[in-house]
């Protein structure tokens, strides 16, 4: 008990001098560089391994090829690219206006409690696991669609034979089911982003329009929506990236048919569903082709994400696009 | 654009106003109906299907009663805890760099990369871990699954951390620095504790999001029918079970899938309620 020092003196440790700060900042920096490195590695891994497929068939040959035949070892990506683009874009087209409507309603019209309930429900549904939407699609939506499709198909076979090749087999599973499931999934996502940007419109903007004698709808159309369009657009793009990369919900309901042409009711395929269905037995050139498909998805979603981030950034600088 | 009617057909404008309100309400109902259908189905079917065996038994063939999903619950929890360690450390570091070292030259790149990682389909994260880890080690494993899930958590934790750290007033940091504390001690002992509820919420949101992911685990964890505490082995998860059972012909399996969906939905619900509560308290 010789010392009376009851407290250690932090100043005595090198950690409490400049060395400590440099050590901490260095550790944080290393971890951040690790994050950056991982993302670069993901792109590199997909690109380098996928390059074998591009080399074997040529870039145009791989992207435009319509045959995907593991037995003949010939791989063309066009059916998957087409299926991905068609399902995502149609789903987004279906989702856009309802999503915008619910966003406008929640902010501009609904009483506060209802607006809160709506926004909370949208947030919850945007974060609901996608495999649950797939389960719902397969066990609820598909049987329901099958009934309607069969009725339409029978009618068409009696009255409009030319429609049959467009409709395809009325089995419920297929393009139509995938589009509807994707639309249901994308709506809460796009709606909550649109809602956020509409809520950010300053009320002075609205008051000015009211002061000019505008009706409520005119205020929304002329003063609110133009101001919020950057955020709404960013929401649409982010919704599109979500739809493009959506895997399990689509795999369960799309039927995984890689033979063109696709029909309205009949089975189709997308890039993610092809990857899930084929990677199990894939080796060599087939695995490279699947990784090349992944690389295409990586590039598309990367570009769309950077574009959305750019829009949001422009918005935050001067408030509008 | 703003062409004010000169001799104003006021009645037409007011009628148009009512029509648009009607369309907006119609659009909102179109949105709300399917969402209620999905959520209602999860709760109604999930609650009727869930039972004690769901939590206490492992996989059994349908003929033997079907068992439960204890193996999947434990697999989900173990993989997600390891993933939380990976995603939490990386995400926290990223958030600290962006918020506490705002002038750091790496920041613009880190922000872009974090956006990219956030928007990158989860499937691709799993696919890359498959080529790097599963092919290299020669087998599916819980560790590989946790790596993929950790990648999903990183941008979520990073954004949440940056957001809440920036809410801590600069005077707190100045007070600490004024007492002679080094910067790292200010960050760890003053700034992070002041923002702890927000940071924890970010971790929870990341956890809930990753727990619902099936696609990346399909390539990495591989799935399993056995209870297993060793992440070096193939591991099952609830989301993966839903995917597999959705296609099973037996109605019992589909019911178990709905029960699993209910558990995941409740997890997401709790995480987002907490997030809301924390941001409201601020």
Describe it for me?
The complex is a heterodimer of chains A (321) and B (282). By secondary structure, chain A is mainly alpha-helical. The termini of chain A are far apart. Chain A contains twelve helices and two strands. In chain A, strands 1-2 form a two-stranded antiparallel sheet. The model of chain A is unreliable at 317-321 (pLDDT under 50). In chain A, helix 4 (112-126) packs across helix 7 and helix 5 crosses helix 7. Chain B is an all-alpha fold. In chain B, 76% of the residues lie in helices and 0% in strands. Chain B contains twelve helices and no strands. In chain B, helix 1 (10-49) crosses helix 12 (251-281), helix 4 packs across helix 6 and helix 11 packs antiparallel against helix 12. The model of chain B has no long low-confidence stretch (mean pLDDT 84). Chains A and B meet through helix 1, helix 3, helix 4, helix 5 and helix 7 of A and helix 1, helix 3, helix 4, helix 5 and helix 6 of B.
